[in-house]
Write a structure and sequence with these properties.
Layout lengths: L2 H6 L4 E3 L9 H14 L2 E7 L5 E4 L2 E5 L6 E9 L1 H4 L10 H10 L4 E5 L10 H11 L6
Parallel strand pairs: 2-6
Antiparallel strand pairs: 1-5, 2-5, 3-4
Keywords: Nucleotidyltransferase, Transferase
Pfam families: IspD
Protein name: 2-C-methyl-D-erythritol 4-phosphate cytidylyltransferase
Length: 139
């Protein structure tokens, strides 16, 4: 189905990042329920644990407060009313899609994702996720 067909279907759209392979189905369902109840775009998020600095040119500046930051994770839920207003499919990078939706004036609701819903970007992340979820390496 094309994006145009999906947007015109009158159905809610759930976008899932394949790099969040252990996102619990119950969390995805909770995000969908929240989007349906509020009409807002709903996205999973995780706390930022790294130190984040402002960089300007070649200069490293101030440290940002981690409490003011989130890491976007899966899923991203577009209520049918929002999906029908979009003239193109959202970016496949969920953080970019959220930024684009917010810039277009769509209310964004962040739901804290469970630790096993984290995004993997390295072999170490896979090992951590395996340990968190009781995968084969921990049995």
């Amino acid at each position: 189905m094309t994006w145009e067909g999906l947007a015109a279907s009158g159905e809610d759209v759930v976008l899932h990042d394949a790099l969040c392979p252990m996102t619990p189905p119950e969390f995805i369902a909770a995000c969908l329920d929240e989007a349906r109840a509020t009409g807002d775009v709903v996205v999973g998020c995780r706390p930022v644990t790294d130190t984040v600095k402002v960089v300007t040119g070649a200069r490293v500046g101030e440290t940002l407060d981690r409490d003011d930051l989130v890491a976007i994770t899966s899923p991203l839920v577009l209520p049918a009313a929002v999906a029908s207003q979009l003239d193109r499919q959202p970016a496949t990078d969920l953080a970019r899609a959220v930024a684009d939706l917010a810039a277009a004036g769509h209310p964004i609701r962040l739901l804290p994702a469970p630790s096993d819903g984290r995004r993997v970007s390295s072999v170490e992340d896979v090992r951590l996720l395996d340990a968190l979820t009781g995968g084969p390496a921990t049995r």
